[in-house]
Design brief:
Blueprint (H helix, E strand, L loop, with lengths): L10 H18 L1 E2 L5 E2 L17 H15 L2 H17 L12 H15 L2 H16 L16 H10 L3 H8 L1 H5 L1 E2 L4 E2 L9 E2 L6 H15 L2 H15 L14 E2 L18 H15 L2 H15 L21 H15 L4 H13 L1 E3 L2 E3 L22 H15 L32
Antiparallel strand pairs: 1-2, 3-4, 5-6, 7-8
């Protein structure tokens, strides 16, 4: 891994890096019976993982992205072969969530049906959602009660996969479990934990995002009103003040020996908070949410990123907690706000500088501040590895060339942007 740099020659450099990342991903696959592909977790000795966060479902999305971007059917074939392994794993999954279980698997299988006409994948998606519904206990599916591992994510995934009734069923329990606060409401993300988390991945804003999206799509005004109350609680916790926006990770501080008091990425910081505010903007039409998203972005761009504030889990290259997740928000802003691409170019240059590249392709290592030595093995997955990083690089390349800024398959916790951005000097068209 090399040090960071701040210059990007052109979009071709980013595209070449993405191609190398795809090559390393393809070489990491394990072929199973019937020509299916599986994806081992290279950071451990565990069996293959079929879920979205670090497993095969996340690989389906990046190879669909590559197929749409390059028009090369080899990538579509890889997505299909990977999807067959995901379909086989649906019945034996022991988790039902969006990021770690059946709901995320169902969503990528539905994408294979819609994008490539794979009816077997569609049937497996139906089977997965039926299983998810059957395991609901009337309030929740497991210990987690938030977006990544609980009801909010299940609701978002079910809606996106074509089952709005399951989406509503998943988020209605938030109506009776909301805890009043001086400014609004909040929720406990898991039983027995005194701390309340505030951001998208495991906290209040992830629940807000799901309530707003599902309430708006199904005409449930009570869900939207609850989303607004949850957002009000988080907004009241802002410690930056205009022009910025920065809310602590949790109150009281959750696991202070491991977790930083503040973060800036998608999972627990303003790069992700702005996604929740974008959803509220789309659902309510209130420009105040655009202003809050702008304040989030001000804080991100003035935080010092992508320099490493402290190497560790919340300060890395990945889509969940690191540079690639910030790049996703940067590209949203280029598409919607007509921002220049200056900051996005800095982020891409940093990813290029920190990549390991050789005859096998490109991959990224992160650092765990709790371990000695701290360098982690490169990961193939969406959250901390190649799948999430390459997907954002490809989108950046299209934006830079005035192409379609939309993902091949949108993930439901990130609002989709308009179809096309005009090329103009000093903005998107600045990278040829």
């Amino acid at each position: 891994m090399t040090g960071a740099r701040t210059t990007l020659k052109d979009a071709g450099e980013a595209e070449a890096l993405a191609l190398d990342g795809l090559r390393w991903l393809a070489g990491s696959a394990r072929e199973t019976s019937g020509g299916k592909l599986a994806w081992p977790d290279l950071r451990s000795d565990s069996d293959v993982d079929h879920a979205f966060y670090r497993g095969a479902a996340g690989q389906v999305l990046v190879f669909l992205e590559a197929w749409r971007h390059f028009g090369d059917d080899t990538y579509a074939d890889t997505a299909l072969r990977t999807g067959r392994g995901v379909a086989d794993a649906v019945d034996g999954a022991d988790d039902d969530s969006l990021y770690f279980g059946r709901t995320g698997m169902a969503l990528v299988l539905r994408a294979l049906e819609e994008e490539l006409g794979d009816r077997t994948a569609g049937a497996a998606a139906d089977r997965a959602l039926t299983a998810v519904r059957s395991r609901f206990d009337g309030t929740r599916w497991g210990a987690l009660f938030e977006l990544m591992g609980g009801n909010a994510g299940i609701g978002l995934g079910a809606l996106a996969a074509g089952d709005p009734d399951l989406g509503v069923l998943a988020v209605e329990p938030y109506l009776r479990t909301a805890e009043p606060t001086p400014a609004g409401v909040q929720w406990t993300h898991r039983p027995g934990v005194a701390s309340h988390l505030h951001h998208v991945s495991h906290g209040t804003l992830g629940i807000v995002l799901a309530l707003a999206r599902i309430g708006g799509a199904t005409g449930r005004g009570d869900l939207v009103e609850l989303a607004l109350a949850g957002a009000a609680d988080v907004v009241a916790r802002d410690q930056a003040g205009p022009p910025g926006f920065l809310v602590p990770h949790s109150t009281p501080h959750f696991r202070p020996d491991v977790v930083d008091p503040v973060s800036y990425g998608w999972c627990h910081g303003p790069a992700g908070d702005g996604q929740a505010f974008r959803m509220l903007r789309d659902v309510t039409g209130d420009p105040a949410w655009t202003a809050l998203a702008d304040r989030c972005w001000h804080t991100v761009t003035h935080s010092g990123l992508p320099e490493r504030l402290r190497p560790g889990f919340w300060d890395n290259n990945g889509r969940c907690c690191g540079t690639a997740g910030v790049l996703a928000t940067a590209c949203d802003r280029i598409a919607e706000q007509r921002d220049t691409d200056d900051f996005a170019r800095i982020l891409v240059a940093d990813l290029a500088a920190r990549a390991t590249r050789d005859a096998d392709g490109a991959r990224w290592s992160n650092v765990d501040h709790r371990a000695v030595p701290g360098d982690l093995e490169p990961s193939t997955g969406w959250a901390m590895g190649n799948a999430g990083i390459v997907r954002e690089l490809l989108r950046f390349v299209r934006l830079s060339r005035g192409g379609d800024p939309r993902y091949a398959v949108a993930w439901p916790d990130q609002p989709q942007v308009p179809a096309r951005v005009p090329v103009r000097d000093g903005a998107v068209g600045a990278v040829a």
